[in-house]
Task: structure prediction
Amino acid sequence: MKAIVTGATKGIGLAITRALLDDGAQVYALGRDMTLLENLPDYTGRLHLHTADLTNTDLTALVHTAAKKMGGIDVLVNNAGITLAKNLEETGTEEWDRLMNLNARVPYVLSQAVIPYLKKHPRSHIIQIASVVASKGCAGQSAYVASKHALLGFSKSIAKELQPYGIRVHVISPGGVATDMVSSVRPDIDTQELIHPQEIADIIRFLLAQRGNAVIDEIQVRRETKAPFA
Ligand SMILES: NC(=O)c1ccc[n+]([C@@H]2O[C@H](COP(=O)([O-])OP(=O)(O)OC[C@H]3O[C@@H](n4cnc5c(N)ncnc54)[C@H](OP(=O)(O)O)[C@@H]3O)[C@@H](O)[C@H]2O)c1
Result:
C-alpha cells in the first residue's frame, strides 16, 4: 500500500500514519511541523516526510513527487483540518475562507490530482475525515460545519464518479476525538470520555482491509457517552 496522509504530525493523522506503517504500507506524511514524526521509529524507508502548508503549496506537484517517491499511490487520506469556535456574528470572512480552503478546497485538489495514480490500481481508496457535525450542524461552529458539509457533498459525488474505476471513496465522520483540536475549542469536555485517535485509525485499517463486495461509504462515530442515533 502506498498512502498519502495529510495532517500526519499529530492527533488523528499521526495515529493513521502509525497504523498504516505498522501494517507495512509506505506513507507520504504531510504536515507543517514534522518534529513529532521525526521521532517515529525507523520504518526502513517506508515513511516519507514532507513539510508544507497545504493552503499555500502546489498540491498537484506535491502528488507527483509523492508518486515518484513511493512508486505510485493507491490511498489518499484527507485528514488535515482546522476548526473555529465562533458564532456567525463573530466569524470573519478571512476565517471562513481559511476553513474552506484547508477543509474543503485542499481535499478537492488532492483528490483530483491522485486520480490518475489511483486508476492504475484495481482497488484504491480516498478517505475523507469529515465530522459528525457535517450532517447535524452545530451552534457556534457554522464556518467549520460548512467546510465539512462541503467535503461530505463533494465526497458523495466523486464516489459515484470514481466507482467505475474501482476507486472507493469513504467518509469518516467522528464526534469528539481526544486531540489538540478539541482541547482548544472544548476544554470543558473530559478527555477520558473522548474517542481515542487510535480508534479512528483502526476504523481506517478495517476499511482498507475490505477486499470483497461489501463497501462502506460513510462511518459516523460517536463517543460512548453521547446519545445513540442522535
Ligand atoms: N478532534 C475531533 O474531535 C475531530 C472530530 C471530527 C473531525 N475531526 C477532523 O479530523 C481531522 C484531524 O483533526 P485532529 O483532531 O487530529 O486535529 P489536530 O490534532 O489539530 O491536527 C490537525 C492536523 O492538520 C494539520 N494542519 C493544520 N493546518 C494545516 C495546514 N495549513 N497545512 C498543512 N497541515 C495543516 C496539522 O499539522 P501541523 O503540525 O502543521 O499543525 C495537524 O497535523 C480534521 O480534519 C478535523 O476536522 C476532528
Notes: The chain has eight helices and seven strands. The radius of gyration is 17 Å. Residues 2-221 form a domain with the Rossmann fold fold (CATH 3.40.50.720). The chain has one domain: 2-221.
